[in-house]
Amino acid sequence: MGRTMRSSTMKAFGQFIALLGIIVLLVFSILMVIPPFRKDGVEIKIRKGASLSAVARELKDAHVIPSSKVFGFCMRLFGADRTIKPGTYSFAPLLSPFLVAQKLVRGETMAKKVIIPEGRTASQIAQILESQNIVSKEAFLKEVNNPEFAETLGIPAATCEGYLFPDTYFFEEKSDPQEIIEQMVSNFRAVIKKIGGQQIPEEELHRDVILASIVEREYRLPEDAPIIASVFFNRLAAQMPLQSCATVVYVLTEHLGRPHPSVVYYNDLRVKDPYNTYIHRGLPPGPISNPGEISLRAVLFPSETDFLYFRLENASSGKHRFSRTLAEHNEVAIIPKGL
Fold it and tell me: What is the distance between the alpha carbons of residues 208 and 229, in angstroms, rounded to a whole number?
């Protein structure tokens, strides 16, 4: 009996060693199998909605991987879905299927980091994108000002201006302008939901976006933004013109093509343009910038005040001073030279 038990133990041990050897070989094949030699790297553009099998075929045809089956096994090890994040990927020569799969699962595309600051206009955003070779300014603005495209995004206006949410993005060179805009508008919707304004009717929300675009260009300190918003709401309720210098600057720079002025002169306040809130009551026809979360929140949830005026009190700190009457406003007013 002792010999029989010893024989069974040795047999089981042998099977364990064999199984361990198979596992080691399998792991080695996953980590170390090298595709056919390539002197240079390869760039593969994976389209939106591409299946795992389609991606595997494309990678194999480009000699990035030696085997679709090994690659598929690697992807399943990562728990990857049947679809892969779209974008352009760069694969170095002699890269194992395991590392190829890892790059795809992580979504490590050849995207560039692009920062869109708050309060930029569509034309300024277009310039930023063009400077990084993401998309041409002309192509981007064509889609921004495409009424049919704006309608598909649920924007109740002829342009996407105001809905291009400022944020840090990762875009690839030569991107599709509509995909860029869709991502920006999607971010805008996400922030509106975060703030709590997802139930606001589109037409009402559009008016809020217009006002937020003005607040964005007026406030310096976040705590002043909801107070500035209250001033504008109070003036609208009193049927007073908004008299926002930011709208005048928008006219001068965007409509008349002038450089950004260091001083707004009285003659500038008289420029005939629908966006000039010194000569037209109510809101301008559309947004004058693309507002960030602070301005959107300020307009959706403004402070309750009876202020009708505000002025920058300290240029260094960015603090504004608020007044209830024109007399109070003039008392603290510091009129710059030339105005």
Answer: 10
For residue 207, what are the CA distances in angstroms to 11, 101, 162, 194, 275? 80, 47, 10, 19, 14
User: Which stretches of the chain drop beneath a pLDDT of 70?
Assistant: 1-39, 80-83, 332-339
**Common-topology check for domains 42-106 and 112-195:** yes
Give strand pairing partners of 83.
51
Domain locations along the chain: 42-106, 112-195, 202-332
> Count of CB atoms within 10 A of residue 153's CB?
16
In a 13 Å sphere around the CA of 246, the CA atoms on its Cβ side amount to: 27
**Closest to 167 in 3D by CA, of 119, 109, 223:** 119
Q: For residues 319 and 219, is the Cβ–Cβ distance under 8 A? A: no
Global pTM reads 0.79
Residue whose entry in the numeric block shows the structure tokens 């000699």: 63
Q: Which fold has domain 112-195?
A: Dna Ligase; domain 1 (3.30.1490)
Which region, left, alpha or beta, applies to residue 114 given φ > 0 means left and ψ of -120 to 50 means alpha?
beta
- Give the pLDDT score at 229: 98
Mapping DSSP to helix (H, G, I), strand (E, B) and coil, where does residue 320 land? strand
Q: To which CATH superfamily is domain 42-106 assigned?
A: Endolytic murein transglycosylase (3.30.1490.480)
Residues 101, 73 contacting (CB under 8 angstroms):
no
pLDDT, position 25: 45
Q: Token match 């926002």: residue?
A: 244
Quote the pLDDT of residue 132: 95
